[in-house]
Amino acid sequence: MLTTRQGVRVLASADLPEFLALAGQDPVVNVFAVHRAQTTRLEPRWLGGEMWGRFEDGEMVAACHAAANLVPVQATVEDARAFAERALARRRTFSTVVGPQAAVGALWNEVRGQWGEPRDVRWDQRHLAIDTAPSVAPDPGVRVGVRDDLPTLYPACVAMYTEEVGVSPESGGAGDLYRARVAQLVGRAWSFVRYDGDELVFKAEVACATAHAAQIQGVWVPPHRRGQGLATTGMAAVVQQVRARLAPTVSLYVNDWNHSARAAYARVGFTETARFATIMY
């Protein structure tokens, strides 16, 4: 259905080339949306939602991933307002609004009066990327995770998620689904671990990847091992291995207040390329 006044409609597989051309204007910032489009071919049953496009004179000028996450793609403030209008026309199923700061802010300003209070709002997140060899020596002990790591890796993933988001990923009976997601990343060889004897002392995952970029999530060191440089050398190893195997550019985003993590990423060689914002329900 086309929202004529705003030029917004649901995209289908036939729109995939035009969507990829649009998102390809910034393939690192848009890596999540590109990954989702390529793996689902924009089919709603695989997306678990929809991908919306906004058109002017028949040309796609912006898009928005509308599934569990609401993610604007190449959206101006005006585009974000148009996507907000469409979002308000349906029951809210999104748990997170995330993406470039200006677009998320504009979208949020339109919906905030009707969606209720979010659980958390993070307005200043630094989007970082590296497309060169790391600036510090990689930890040679970092390797791809395997299924035998799951008894120690899964609790670490739960601990990291709970610390970062503020609620357990197992809450509301979602433990089996989260365990399956962790196992899926291990099965894809997208999980990285470092052990000291039997103790897991560093872990990180690839959240999504395309031919242009791979986005890292879930970077974690146990609290009693922090301050020992494990995150710096561990991330250097992740960058080295991901660039060799998956994509030439490695990206992530980090809260502005997480000074220790930002300092570690800077030592590795990450530089800021954009500002993100996240609203969580």
Give an overview in words.
With 281 residues, the protein is of the alpha+beta class. The chain folds into two domains: 8-116, 3-Layer(aba) Sandwich (Aminopeptidase); 143-273, Gcn5-related N-acetyltransferase (GNAT) (Aminopeptidase), CATH 3.40.630. It is 37% helix and 30% strand. The protein is built from nine helices and twelve strands. The protein has helices at residues 16-23, 31-40, 44-47, 77-88, 101-115, 150-165, 175-187, 230-245, 259-268, and strands at residues 8-10, 50-56, 59-66, 69-73, 96-100, 120-130, 143-144, 191-196, 199-209, 213-220, 249-255, 271-280. A twelve-stranded mixed sheet has the order 1-2-3-4-5-12-6-11-10-9-8-7, with helices on both faces. A hairpin with a 2-residue loop joins strand 2 (50-56) and strand 3 (59-66). Helix 6 packs across helix 7 (175-187). The model has no long low-confidence stretch (mean pLDDT 95). This is GNAT family N-acetyltransferase. InterPro entries: Acyl_CoA_acyltransferase, Bact_Acetyltransf, DUF4081, GNAT_dom, UCP21603_acetyltransf. It holds the Pfam family DUF4081. Residues 144-281 form the N-acetyltransferase domain. Keywords: Acyltransferase, Transferase.
Short account of what is shown:
Keywords: Acyltransferase, Transferase. Helix content is 37%, strand content 30%.
What order do the helices and strands come in, and which of them pair?
Blueprint lengths: L7 E3 L5 H8 L7 H10 L3 H4 L2 E7 L2 E8 L2 E5 L3 H12 L7 E5 H15 L4 E11 L12 E2 L5 H16 L9 H13 L3 E6 L2 E11 L3 E8 L9 H16 L3 E7 L3 H10 L2 E10 L1
Parallel strand pairs: 4-5, 10-11
Antiparallel strand pairs: 1-2, 2-3, 3-4, 5-12, 6-11, 6-12, 7-8, 8-9, 9-10
